[in-house]
Each structure stands twice: as C-alpha cells, then as structure tokens.
Amino acid sequence: MLDRExxxxxxxxxDVLAVPEFRGIIIxxxxxxxxDQVARVAIALLVLSQSGSPLLAATTFAISFVPSLLGSALLxxxxxxxxxxxxxxxADLGRAVTVGLIGLLAVPGISVWLLFGLLFLSxxxxxxxxxxxxxxxxxxxxxxxxxxxxxxxxRALNLANQAFGLLLGGVIVQLTSPRIALFVDALSFxxxxxxxxxxxxxxxxxxxxxxSLRVLLRDLGEGWTLLMHDPSRRALVLLGWALAATLVAxxxxxxxxxxxxxxxxxWGGALMAAVVIGAAIGALLVSRRPVREQLDxxxxxxxxxxxxxxxxxxxxxxxxLVVLWALSGAAQAFLVPVMSLTSLLTPNSQRGRVxxxxxxxxxxxxxxxxxxxxxxxxxxxxxxxxxxxxxVGLVVAGVAYLIWPAPSLRADVRRLEEPTx
Length: 421
Description:
Elements: H1 13-17, H2 20-51, H3 54-75, H4 78-81, H5 84-105, H6 112-123, H7 125-141, H8 144-175, H9 178-199, H10 213-228, H11 231-260, H12 265-287, H13 291-304, H14 318-331, H15 335-344, H16 351-379, H17 382-403, H18 406-417
Helix pairs in contact: 2-3, 2-8, 2-9, 3-6, 3-7, 3-11, 3-16, 5-6, 5-7, 5-9, 7-8, 7-16, 8-12, 8-15, 10-16, 11-12, 11-15, 11-16, 11-17, 12-14, 13-15, 13-17, 16-17
C-alpha cells in the first residue's frame, strides 16, 4: 500500500478526484444512482395511489433491498474470484435491460405484485456491482487516508443522489408518467457502463477464478469468520446493521406522513429528501477528518442520529420536521468510518466476500426497518412509527457504547497509519 500523502495533511475531495480511475467510478455512480431513485419513487407512488396502503408503499422500498440481502452474501465472493471491472460492467448491462422491461410494463392498473417481482429481479444486480465497487476503491486509491476520503465522498454522493432522485422522481412522475421515469433509469445504467468501460483499468482477480459453488460457499464462510472473529470489524459491522432499521424509518413512511397530515404529495418527497441531504452533508464533513478522528466520532453520531426523530411524535410544522430529519440524516455520517475501516482492515484478496456479507446484513436490517416502520404506521400513525424506531436506535447505540472495543480499534487505526513503502 502506498503512502501517498504526508500524515500531517488532510486528504480532501480534490485529492481523490485527481485519481482518474476513481473519478470514473464517481461519475458512473452519480449517473446511475440518481436514475435508480427516480424509478423507486415512481413505483412507490404508483403502488400508493392504487392501494392507498402505507405498508405496500414501504414494501416497494423494502423489496428493493431484499436482493441485496440475498445477493450480497452469495455474490460477494465473486468480487474476489473474477475481474471487478467486468462484474461492474455486467451488472450495469443487466440493470439496464431489466429496468427497461419494467418501464415497458409499468402502466396504471398493472398488478402491484408483478411490479414487485420485476423490481426484485432488477435489483439483484445491485449487490454484485456494490461488492465489486467497494473492493475496487482501496485498489484504486491506495493509502488509508485516500480510501477514507474516497469512501466518504462515495457515501455522500450516494445520499445526494438519493435526495436528488427522490425530488426528481416526484417531478417526473407528475409531469409525465412512471414509464418515463423508469426509462430514464434504464438509460442511466447504459451511460454508467460507458463511463466505467472508458476509465477503469482491467485488473486480474484477487484470487483464482472459479465457478464452483462449493468454493464460493467456502469463501463465504471464510468471510464470515474474518468478520466475526475480529473484534474491530465485528463491532463496526454489527453497529451498522443494528442501526439500519432506525436509519430508514423516515424514508419508509415519509410519503404516508405527508398524506396522513393532509400535506401535498411534494412534502412527502421533501421529507424523504431532507434525510438523505443531511446525510450527504454529514458524510462529506466527516470524511475530511483524519481516520483516527473519524473513529472517535462513530458512537457520538450513532447516538445523535435518533434524537431529532423523537420530536416527530408531536407532529411539528412540516418545515420544522424537514430540518429535524435533515439533522438526523447528518448524524448518519457514522457509517463513513464504519464502511472505510471495515474495508481497510480486510486483506485485498478477501474484500469482496467481506463487503458482500456486510452488505447482506445491512440489507437485512434495512428491509426489516422498512417493513416494521410501515406496519407500525399502518396500525398507529406514521409519526408514532418514527418515534418507535428512534427509541430502538437509542437502545442499540447505548448498548454499543457499553461494549465498544475502543483499544482494539485504536490499535488497528495506528497500524493503518504506519507507512508501508
């Protein structure tokens, strides 16, 4: 691993974007992710208008994470056994084709369950792409400080793309139709493919290629052992998993909250966007800190994330709630060091499987969060649902504070900061 920067200098956005391959990864990410959010909003609004059910609308978002739950764990080892560039390109093509098919069929009156099935199929390419991309970032950027800054930028842009896509999705659907929104998404994957093909250099697989299911399952088991037997990685990943349900609660019921309180549909999109805009800003701010300082911020931010959500229970003016949810989103920046340190502490030859398992667990608890928040909103109210999930988040963060392996994590960060050549 290269020691590209003086330890006294902070690595910023300009530094990591000066690396051409990483710049290509970021451009492709911006193009595809914004279009993806447009499609999710289009389907969610179509389902909500047809069924009038907050639970089914939340289920739309939940279903988009189920393939990540299954695919991340099962397909993650492929990112160690095959060219990561090839896997990303193949995933982009697969998503372009399947989302285009959804666009052809997504018309008013279509079966909600058919939409769910097609959405499930299209999202199965996402975890494969994600595992390959996460495993590629340390290869492309090199040093820990660059990887931390690059991971923070990627996280911030992922969230900014969600916010932009949520707002843009509502506008496109109202001005045109869900079909147009879905075709925009399909086109975004084609453009992402072209950018990656032009900028990302081919690299050999980190390990010998194989199509043996037995070997891939063995890789999966090794990845699980690598995660769970190391106190540092285990603490980071389990914290991210356990807080995923609280993290997505506002997004799960944002549309239903606006409808339940008599607000226009646009406020539902604004509420959802506020969370991810705040999270994007928080991720950028945290990613500029040195790695050791990022680690020290993990627990305080994890606790702070739930506090603004508690106010939702009194149903304040919608503008106030937008600000509160944005503050909660900003505290989600605890995920930046969680993601980058998990990757940095893992050998390159095993990053794909570890990223896959970490992504699968996060997707599992994200899916649970969407479904539980949607269910509680259906039997009580969207506001009460957010409060319940915030209390769960505070309990989780409190337990983490009591058992946090601070000495182990600090020792690992010190080792990462030591020049290696």
